[in-house]
Amino acid sequence: MKVLIATSHTQSLRIDDYHFAVAGELVYLPLFDCDRDDCGCTRGFAGLSSSKATTTAMVIDRPDMTKADLEVAVADGLHRQGWLTEGWSEAHADILEEVMQEIEWVTREYPLNAIIERNQGTVRCRAVLHPAEHIGWAA
Predict the structure, then answer these.
(1) Dihedral of the CA atoms 90, 108, 110, 54 (nearest 10)?
(2) Helix axis angle, 67-80 to 90-109, nearest 10°
(3) Residue 28, SS3 per DSSP
């Protein structure tokens, strides 16, 4: 299954890059960005495990992961981050579906090993690594 992970590859290519997430952890496109000009949230991907962000993510294949596994990981991360509260509701299902659709869109749009960035709703490819440039799926 194609997923997005945090990566430090190509970090510092842009002067305003940041990487607080754990390299290799699953990431997603945040649901909301603030409207502060001095905040980098419009450029980040959110880590599902660390709840920290990075401006670079990589598309990788996780053959050990199914769509159901990814959905569980996303739901768990969103719950710990406060996006999903106790008790399940239609609003929770909508949030989870939106995050899953975003991940699926990005991983379908970009090739394996693509290093991607985002800025105010636009996602683009920075580079595509040759498979020999990284080992396994750790980034």
Answers:
(1) 20
(2) 120
(3) strand
- Strand ranges of the sheet holding 27-28, from the earlier edge strand across to the other edge: 27-28, 45-47, 53-54
Domain assignments of the chain as residue spans, ordered by start: 2-133
DSSP 115: E
Total Cβ atoms within 10 A of residue 13: 13
Higher pLDDT, 106 or 85: 106
pLDDT of 14-66, one tens digit each? 888 999 999 999 999 987 665 666 665 678 899 999 999 999 999 999 999 99
The full DSSP string for 33-90 is: ----TT--GGG-EEETTT--EES-EEEEE-TT--HHHHHHHHHHHHHHTTSS-SS--H
DSSP code for 7: -
Strand partners of residue 88: none
Structure tokens belonging to residue 59: 């598309």
DSSP tag of 122: E
Q: Six-digit token pair at 57?
A: 């993510």
